[in-house]
Amino acid sequence: MSSGAAFLRFPTTRPRRPPMRHYPAISSSIWSSVSDPYPWRTLGAPGAKTKILSTNKKGPGCKHRSRSHGEGVEKCFCLTSSLIGSAKWLHTPKSVKPQIVCETKKAFSAHQKGILPLSMPTTRAKIWDMLRLLRHGGPALCNVAVTNSCNATCDFCNFANGKIPHKDLRWIDATRLDAALQILHGRGIRYVSFFGGEPLLHPYIAEIVALSIEKGMGTALITNGWLLPAKLDELVGSGLKTIYISIDAASIDAHEANRGLKRLGERIRAATARMPRLGITPIAQVTMSKLIKNYHLLAPFLRDLGFEAVAFSYPQRTRLGSSSLAWSDTSKLVDFTDRELIEAFEAVDELRTAFPVNNPHASIADMKRHLRGESEHFVCYGGYKSFYMDWNFDVWRCDAWRERMCSVWDFDKTPFVRDGCTACIADCYRDSSVMLHFAVSLGDTLDGICEGRLVAALKTIANTRNLESLSAVFENARVRSRLARTG
Question: Is residue 233 predicted with pLDDT exceeding 60?
Fold first, then answer.
């Protein structure tokens, strides 16, 4: 999935909000404005201990004056508290309505040494939760588009600056997102990826990220990197550990020309240089296009920019059925013949010897089968284990599908879709389906055993595709061991 970029001509300024009817005002106490409590029995951490250091919204000794923490003052960090009292060890109740509590630098240091925020599930709880989910086919993921605004002019993307009328720009309502994430969590979604458009244009992106992390969801963000140096500290404070930065070519000049953002490379380098110290994994998100003349040249270029791995977005050459605009049916940059695209996929596989590639080899092989018209080894689990939610809180089985599943507010009672689809080559759904296949197969096997269909259960677990799926899971173990810290 291509990252988007925003609509501003001068991206260093704060984005102007659209009319109020499209974007309700958000108070500084965004955490206290949500109505849903955190159900600790769902998160699996009853009785967890947290040290409450502050008893009011600004906290003694802290210069916090606004949600943005002000300019030129010492950074403060926030945690949630359900109780007002002096600094004591408190047991968390089974459900919590949070209110903002400001944590000073001293308190943050204590947190880094192991004092957990009130709403963070423990490692033990997460392991138990994952085992429970494996019984039902494993965890699910959701790609969330927080805005359709964009500040880049990418030729192969219809989110590009100027392609959407200003009156049609939208931002997801952050005050309602907590409740939406709770519904997603309740249906087994444990991984979310925030994108756009350019997600860093959302004024409350750090709060959005923090909400998902507090629910124990592995969280990633896809950005073009223009605003990243200015936003990085805020994202670190929210707990983000994985950032994908869009790269379009093996030279900075070609990349900046396609994005329409001069000196973008300098901003990307400024951000990636700091990420290792901050515990963030920088991954390049590269769209397969004709801007890449030689895939082998990507390895030294990406390494020089500070990236630790690369994930390729497969070109979307036809209109997507959903609200997503990460496609182009007119761009010559993605106007591949099937033979040309097969050769590009082969070049991606060859790159693995020089640089870590996150796309599973088994998925690349299936994409080549798809282009040759051959039977594919893995079906897509879009609508069953992967989903797309847009800025209107509409949920789709994937970007490409022409009919939405439902509104997120009805998602808890909407049946999942599992129909063996292999209609497209959308990387974020096809790649994840390969990775999740073994877990889904394990759930099917347990279902067969419980229903007395022992022969069918044995055939399911003995299928050779399970070994391919497991191989894909461990293919980039070194990189994923760092990614595991997102949750």
Answer: yes
